[in-house]
């Protein structure tokens, strides 16, 4: 029997410049029908146990002791500032699902296909698969429009994430229960109203726990028993970590394009990552050029 684990995360929640990127990864774990795994946490742990044979969080361990794939905290992995390190891991994931985002074409090399085949062979032996990866990039213009409608960016993040999750659940085969793993959204602890908003036909939604470290809910939807986990630092688990890495990579690629665009008009302009303080510096330096080009401020500057 199958169990699906969906992990989500975002990149770009805090900046004033550049997009917000939200990503979801969907994993399938084959479970022995004789030895039942009753708790969603145990399914997450079981996936981690199996993947531990071929994955590592440390770049220095890659290629040693059967470690084929780097998956971990995107911020730590990207400390070197080398996008290729992130791209190598994300490209493996995308190839496993039959996807290649056009933005990543320059980062593809011959090593990826060889590694993908090794990972795919290991997956068959381990009884797991990476079912899908879905990412949504929200431009500053769309971010501001959604912010005006929803009132705050925590709700914006929650509604974007839940929309992606619902679409992903609807694409799953009918068999198999589902665990959904999300990072906490803006420090929120209570998600019951949001779940009823997106799953109005699910019937009773059971609250298993609500608190600062973890909020858990259980209900049925389209022949699936579903358990939602909103957890602080969820990216310590592989499904959310891979979502975090994908979102981080796509945002960094988008910021490269932002900087290149303005540097063609202002060659001495220092690039920005878009975060507060430096975003103000960057925006002040492009302000006269922005006005000359007739680009609305709301197309560039996120209000929150």
Write structural notes for this entry:
A seven-stranded mixed beta sheet has the order 5-2-1-6-9-8-7. 41% of the residues lie in helices and 21% in strands. The longest helix is centred in the C-terminal third of the chain and has 26 residues, at 238-263. Helix 3 packs across helix 4 (110-126). It is globular and about 65 Å long. It has a single domain (2-253), classed as Ribonuclease H-like superfamily/Ribonuclease H (Nucleotidyltransferase, domain 5). The protein is an alpha/beta fold and 304 residues long. The protein has helices at 40-51, 74-77, 83-96, 110-126, 140-150, 153-171, 192-198, 238-263, 278-293; strands spanning 2-11, 20-30, 55-56, 69-70, 128-138, 177-183, 206-209, 214-221, 224-231. Residues 33-39 have low confidence and may be disordered. A hairpin with an 8-residue loop joins strand 1 (2-11) and strand 2.
CATH homologous superfamily designation: Ribonuclease H-like superfamily/Ribonuclease H
> What's the main sheet like?
7 strands, mixed
pLDDT averaged residue by residue: 92
Provide the CATH topology. Nucleotidyltransferase, domain 5
Q: What class, by secondary structure content?
A: alpha/beta
pLDDT < 50 stretches: 33-39
Based on the structure given, which CATH architecture is correct? 2-Layer Sandwich
Tell me the number of helical segments per DSSP (H or I, 4 or more residues long).
9
Anisotropy-based shape: globular
Strand arrangement in the largest pleated sheet: 5-2-1-6-9-8-7
Q: What's the CATH class label?
A: Alpha Beta
Percent range of helical residues = 40-55%
Distance between the termini: 45 Å
Order of helix and strand elements from N to C terminus: EEHEEHHHEHHEHEEEHH
Strand-residue proportion: 15-25%
Number of strands: 9
Rg (CA only): 20 Å
Number of domains: 1
